[in-house]
Specification:
By secondary structure, the chain is α/β, with parallel strands linked by helices. It has nine helices and nine strands.
Amino acid sequence: MQEKPEITLLICSHNRANTLKKSLDYYADLKTSVPYEILIVINSCTDQTLDIIHEAMNKNKLIRYVTEDKIGLSNARNTGYKNALAPFVFYIDDDAKPHADLLHQINLILSNNEIDCISGRTLYWNHNSPSWIKAKYVVPPIFRADFGRMPASGYINGCACGFSVKALEAVGGFNTSLGMRAKKIGYYDEVDIQNKIKSAGYTIFYSPHLKVDHQSHYKRVHHFLNSAYQKGVYRKKAIKTSSVKSFILAVLFFLKGLILLPYFITKNGLKSALVECFSISFTYLGQV
């Protein structure tokens, strides 16, 4: 009989069967002595996701799944922790793959510390992405060189983050009005949960040793610029900002981008240059 898992790896997926299939292959490489499970939340999928999961389950007996019919990443995340068999859950995106020592590193930290919230590190996985996309466009910064408390300027990485189930239950889980919803871009779900975790008196930790390789969600220039714009829209919802100030900053950064555009075209090509030069102005435009 399999031991009760101490860690649940949680994958939420919506209509990305082929992407999920590629990612799940790497879960066979995990090396650890700690009991764990891999729980996939099927979020209102209409493609071949279930078939892919059944195929993966035949290869890996630690995989199981639950369904969540209400569309939205936050809905899926909440369903995930409520159905986890372990007291600690670690979320990984369906277009990402864990490093082989991820569970070992999580277990080392949990064995020596009381952890209710921790964020890990993602590295760029360029699978199925055009060569003009640079890692810096999609990879969050490293907030400290070793394990410890999250710096004040740091933020949770939604592709690689862990929580005690008791902490998620205490704060009511993820805000279902925020976050990705099928093809509709959404943000600030991680900011919201981070604020709720801190307000409830829990400590947030960070470790650069918890590594996950993550593909770019976006493959075209307009995807990146729209993402930047939507970040501004959600920032305005979450934090009161001045529309006039945001418009002025949008114009100033746009003009700065125009000046720098020839240099970046020469350095990295047109597509990279457009993302490099105009993302910030689009974010401020979203706050107008």
